[in-house]
Design goal:
By secondary structure, the protein is an alpha/beta fold. The protein folds into 2 domains: about 270 residues, Aldehyde Dehydrogenase, Chain A, domain 1 (3-Layer(aba) Sandwich); about 180 residues, Aldehyde Dehydrogenase, Chain A, domain 2. The protein is built from 15 helices and 22 strands.
């Protein structure tokens, strides 16, 4: 078992005599490592390092910053199997997805490294002669990054890579369920040659470390991924300080299945979308909206597919579904199963905690499928677990109405061979992402990621990632050799 400190100013602090917390394997209960519980003073030390280092990092040419990120990609690629196994052991997703989590970080490092040679501004005309106008991008300054546990490498990389490329320095708080993955991110950056103080990590609670970062006078921007209610608090606290806040929050994502859909293709997408990562993705498919013409056949095939899913230790490549991430997650999901039953939703399969043998060591829930109504809580509230609600509709218009009838708007999907319906779905579905003939998961790093409504408004990944960590500066270059007054009534002066 390893004992870690904080990562501040390019060094691991020893943190002797400090209160510590454990990170454990949700499949086996084994303790993986311990970390210190951070205080406001620890946050201040980390922010001070980021503030002190910011001017030099800002003034480092962006292409050179990109080269460091490219080196980090090479290192992470070399360590992919090792770090992927840590993701699986600490978070609980199956090993293929654990490696995929790391691959997403690699992809974004490689993509954003190239942005160092762009960071585009604009040029435009002036209303005055002999004057040149343009915009340039400037880094926000030191920023705070608060990430969740479900993508413990990919999401910290999304946030930090964009921030670092833009010239920001970073204070990072990983989720307390997955700090070991955060430590591996620190190791990769250190090996890549990131200067001391540019990337710092403090572990601990959201109420102390998280609030400490948000409220610190040295922090000029916050990027947060997590639950809606916590996101509202982060937004309010950031607004009081008039700093930039990026939010990526929850989802209640739906696949629409029209009567002309390829059911074989759709079945693969539904199972992967609903039960991949044990349903613990903000983009997970938690609602299935099915045309009445194929409803009965769909349910029969779906239950059969769910029956043969193999649950177990996710380090085994033959396992389809691993544990949920913690005892709290398990409790919440099982409570929602009971809520569904009490509201009259029909449970077709699953929804119980698995017991006996190795299952007793972890948090295993058999994937659940409900026949539900659109008003049921299990069909409107984010559960963040392997629980799928199936809803029957009569036509395309009703399907879109049901899909849009929730507070969230992250990811959406439709399976159809009708190109008119496909393009109409792109136009009418209230979501930041729409897939045609694919599930609600599977975003690529060079496209923007984010949603609408209670999902938030930030766009991470893609070229839009630059917007989160920069501001635009307008530049006017006058080479007329005289004072020129813009927006003066020149016609009156001429008379």
């Amino acid at each position: 078992m390893e004992e870690y400190g904080f990562y501040i100013n390019g060094e691991w602090t020893k943190a002797k005599g400090r209160t510590r917390f454990e990170t454990t394997n949700p499949a086996t209960g084994d303790v993986l490592a311990t970390f210190p519980v951070g205080t406001k003073e620890d946050v201040d030390t980390a922010v001070s390092a980021a503030v002190k280092t910011f001017p030099k990092w800002r003034d480092t040419p962006a292409p050179k910053r990109g080269l460091i990120l490219l080196e980090a990609a090479r290192i992470m690629r070399r360590r992919k199997d090792e770090i992927g196994a840590i993701v699986t052991k600490e978070m609980g997703k199956v090993i293929a997805e654990g490696k995929g989590d790391v691959q997403e970080g690699i992809d974004f490092l490689e993509y954003m490294a190239g942005e160092g040679r762009r960071l585009y501004g604009e040029t435009t005309t002036s209303e005055l002669p002999d004057r040149f106008c343009m915009t340039v991008r400037q880094p926000l300054g030191p920023v705070g990054l608060i990430s969740p546990w479900n993508f413990p490498v990919a999401i910290p990389m999304w946030k930090s890579v964009a921030a670092l490329l833009c010239g920001c320095t970073v204070v990072f708080k990983p989720a307390s369920l997955t700090p070991l993955c955060g430590a591996k991110v620190c190791e990769v950056y250190e090996e890549a040659g990131l200067p001391p103080g540019v990337f710092n990590m403090v572990t601990g609670s959201g109420s102390v470390v998280g609030d400490g970062i948000i409220g610190h006078h040295g922090i000029r921007g916050i990027s947060f991924t997590g639950g809606v209610e916590t996101g509202r608090e982060v937004y309010q606290k950031g607004a009081k300080r008039l700093i930039k806040v990026g939010l990526e929050l929850g989802g209640k994502n739906a696949i629409i299945l029209m009567d002309d859909a390829d059911l074989d293709l759709a079945m693969d997408g539904i199972v992967f979308g609903a039960f991949g990562t044990a349903g613990q993705r903000c983009t997970a498919t938690s609602r299935l909206i099915v045309h009445e013409g194929i409803y009965d056949e769909l349910l029969s095939r779906l239950v059969k597919r769910a029956e043969v899913l193999k649950l177990g230790n996710p380090i085994d490549p033959k396992v389809d579904v691993g544990p949920v991430a913690s005892a709290d997650q398990e409790k919440k999901i099982l409570e929602y199963v009971q809520i569904g039953k009490k509201e009259g939703a029909k449970l077709l399969i699953g929804g119980e905690k698995l017991k006996g043998g190795d299952y007793d060591k972890g948090f295993f829930i058999k994937p659940a499928i409900f026949e539900a109504k659109r008003t049921h809580r299990i069909a409107t509230e984010e559960i963040f677990g392997p629980v799928l609600s199936v809803l029957k509709i009569k036509d395309f218009d009703e399907a879109v109405k049901v899909a849009n009838g929730v507070a969230y708007g992250l990811s959406s999907s439709i399976y159809t061979n009708d190109i008119r319906q496909a393009f109409k779905a792109i136009q009418t579905l209230e979501a930041g992402i729409t897939y045609i003939n694919a599930p609600t998961i599977g975003a690529e790093v060079h496209l923007p990621f984010g949603g609408v409504k209670d999902t938030g408004f930030t766009r991470e990944a893609g070229s839009a990632a630059v917007d989160e960590f920069t501001y635009e500066k307008a530049v006017y270059i006058d080479y007329s050799g005289r004072l020129q007054k813009a927006q003066i009534d020149t016609e009156k002066l001429a008379k």
